[in-house]
Design goal:
This protein is mainly beta. Helix content is about 5%, strand content about 60%.
Length: about 700
């Protein structure tokens, strides 16, 4: 080999080495736009064309990555061609699969055939071809579905899909457009739209139409509503919903929401189109919250010019409207609040509907001293002026000083919760019947809750048996309201329900608690107790011995049972029962709420409410709710229906019977039909507009 040939040979090798180093180096130079790596590299046309074979990867400096069996890079034309098993991952988490793909050397502008796309939310788009230029991506003969299946051809999508002649995605406006769109449910075409658009998955909210609702009601007739959502700013939006009734007045509702770093406020309102002499009916709800360094102000308003308007039109089921304002401020040791409220009772037809509380002022000092007789000293203050439904005006000022000290005897495990309280109440009552002024009441009391937890541990469970005794020393007075022992007050030192009242007289609350826990989502708790008054004052309406109280709570895996029973101590008759259960038996989930009060002791009440859901086939469910008055043997209302729900589709069909009667509200029945296409709608409210019992979440 001559020196000249040897020099040319080594020059070519050196040039090739430099080219490959530039192309494959992890350090990208200023003028190098992509980096290409592969098992095999070929350089043609003096480095102008690079052919990468076998695990070929082209990647830009921002992480955009293209994989293929073969990648050809033409530097002169700034063109990349990929052929065979092409996979493209963009910076937004989307993955594209192509048979063939062409792109510029920045992998921004694309042109490919036989495209399959998995978006970052796991929804999918397939198409015959794809063209991406600047911010616009278009697909020919495309299909879209959010269904989470592995079949990218989307031939057997169990939920829904949308087919279109063309799909355009505008990355600048974050919008997806469809030309000649056809919606398929279970592979059956059910709806055609010449044009359709929606926000892409990266958009949290966007102006436009929300999912409509179709219902039929015996009183309202056929009902159709379609919400229109307007996204004003990221922190405020508005929803306008016209609702059309075939047998009643149409109405139009508005919801406005605003949120900022200082608080929020929400407006919910509606008005009907009644044109007779009675005028239109309407409602207005406002709720606003404002925080500052000094505290939090909350303003709320609930009003309607027609007592039955909201319930009749299925807006809500409220029978008491609340309006007013409140202000709260707190520090580590102090709490202050000011409330002024009014309550309107819509269910009252003849008589006063309003009661007021204006104002109610509370000022508490949580920690005056931590070393008073080695205990904790606090002070509670309250001023209250109110008017009740009987036009009784009450002015009340109360102060209560509290001392408490908790200790545990290490030698025997006894726990003492020692308390001493003194409440002073000044009360003035002005009523139509009498006037009671300058009434000052003193409520002193000393108590100690003594308990002894007895713990026994085994390999698979722990159990605790705790006897509890609460001796209470308090003088008798004439201001005690008779109280019934309940789940919440069995060991309470004061069962009075009002601040102006106090449970008087010396007494002892006692009982026992047993708790079993196996540390495997299985536990049982039993409680039994009673209250004993040391002697009976003639002016005191309460008995020396209270009724017997028994409660049981059990939780086993996904099942729970809660039950409270109050038994008359004299004749051992049951006074009241309150029971709540939840169970899962194979594919059946159900809840039962049962309440009973004996007519021997008060107005008889016996009511049962049930709710359930049965999964009878894959994603198909049968659900039901209902409430029945067992005393009168009459239903209050019930609902049942069928639900299909998977990861992309919800179909809900319900029948309901509402037996509520109130003036212009008559007994009615009807049905509702809802189709929710995820992610354009939500299944949160399936069947919840007509609920007559506990719901299965």
């Amino acid at each position: 080999m001559t020196e000249l040939l040897r020099f040319k040979y080594f020059y070519f090798i050196f040039l090739s080495f430099i080219t490959l180093t530039v192309v494959t180096s992890n350090k990208i130079s200023a003028d190098q736009k992509i980096r290409i790596t592969a098992d095999e590299m070929q350089i043609e046309r003096e480095g102008q064309i690079i052919k990468a074979k076998g695990n070929a990867v082209a990647q830009d400096e921002k992480g955009l990555k293209m994989k293929s069996d073969l990648i050809v890079y033409d530097e002169e034309q700034s063109l990349i061609q990929a052929d065979g098993n092409v996979i493209l991952n963009d910076s937004e988490g989307n993955t594209y699969f192509f048979e063939k793909l062409e792109s510029d050397d920045e992998i921004k502008n694309l042109k490919g055939i036989h495209v399959r796309t998995r978006l970052d939310d796991n929804s999918r788009i397939v198409g015959a071809s794809l063209v991406k230029k600047d911010n616009i991506t278009s697909l020919e003969e495309a299909e879209y579905t959010p269904c989470l299946e592995n079949d990218y051809l989307i031939k057997n999508c169990p939920g829904w899909k949308l087919k279109a002649n063309k799909i355009f995605q505008d990355n600048k406006t974050k919008t997806i457009h469809y030309d000649h769109a056809r919606i398929h449910l279970f592979n059956i075409p059910v709806f055609y739209l010449p044009y359709f658009s929606h926000p892409d998955p990266s958009v949290n909210k966007r102006s436009g139409f929300l999912m409509p609702t179709v219902e039929t009601d015996q009183n309202l007739g056929d009902t159709f509503s379609i919400p229109i959502f307007y996204n004003i700013k990221s922190n405020l939006d508005l929803t306008f919903t016209p609702t059309i009734h075939s047998k009643s007045n149409n109405f139009y509702s508005l919801n406005y929401r605003q949120l900022n770093d200082r608080g929020f406020f929400n407006i919910d309102a509606s008005i009907d189109d009644n044109d007779d002499k009675s005028g239109t009916s309407n409602h207005l709800f406002f709720d606003g919250n404002l925080s500052n360094p000094y505290g939090t102000l909350n303003v709320f308003l609930q009003t309607s010019n027609n007592d039955t308007y909201m319930r009749k039109n299925k807006i809500n089921k409220l029978t008491v409207l609340k309006s007013g304002l409140s202000f709260e401020m707190s520090t580590e040791n102090r709490f202050f609040s000011l409330d002024s409220k009014g309550y309107k009772h819509l269910a009252i037809q003849d008589g006063e509907q309003w009661e007021y509380e204006y104002p109610k002022i509370v000022y508490n000092i949580n920690n005056i001293d931590d070393n008073i007789f080695n205990g904790h000293l606090s002070l509670d203050n309250q001023f209250d002026f109110n008017k009740d439904l009987n036009d009784n005006y009450t002015t009340l000022a109360a102060s209560q000083i509290n001392w408490n000290k908790n200790l545990i005897k290490k030698e025997n495990g006894l726990i003492f919760e020692n308390k001493a309280n003194l409440r002073v109440v000044s009360i003035s009552i002005d009523s139509k019947l009498a006037r009671d002024t300058d009434n000052i009441r003193f409520y002193p009391q000393v108590s100690s809750a003594i308990s002894l937890p007895l713990l026994k541990s085994a390999k698979n469970f722990n159990q605790t048996l705790t006897p509890i005794i609460v001796p209470i020393i308090a003088p008798y007075n004439n201001y005690t309201e008779a109280q019934t022992v309940s789940n919440s007050n069995l060991f309470s030192t004061n069962r009075a329900i009002s601040i102006k009242e106090w449970e008087s007289g010396p007494r002892i609350n006692y009982g026992i608690e047993w708790f079993l826990d196996n540390n495997l989502d299985k536990n049982v708790k039993l409680t039994f107790g009673q209250s004993f008054r040391l002697n009976k004052n003639k002016s005191d309406a309460t008995e020396e011995l209270s009724d017997y109280y028994f409660s049981s709570d059990a939780s086993i895996n996904n099942n729970y049972f809660s039950n409270t029973i109050v038994v008359d101590r004299k004749d051992i008759d049951i006074k009241s029962i309150s029971m709540n259960t939840y169970s899962e038996i194979y594919d059946l989930k159900f809840k039962i709420d049962y309440d009973y009060t004996s007519g021997k002791y008060s107005t008889i009440n016996e009511q049962v409410a049930v709710g359930g859901e049965y999964n009878f086939k894959n994603n198909f469910f049968f659900k039901f709710t209902g409430t029945k008055d067992l005393d009168t043997n009459k239903n209050i209302g019930y609902q049942y229906g069928f639900l299909y729900e998977d990861n992309c589709l919800g179909v809900d069909l319900n029948y309901y019977r509402d037996l509520t009667i109130d003036r212009d509200i008559k007994e009615s029945d009807g049905y509702s039909f809802t189709v929710v296409l995820k992610p354009f709608g939500s299944t949160r409210n399936y069947g919840k507009s007509k609920v007559f019992g506990p719901l299965i979440n």
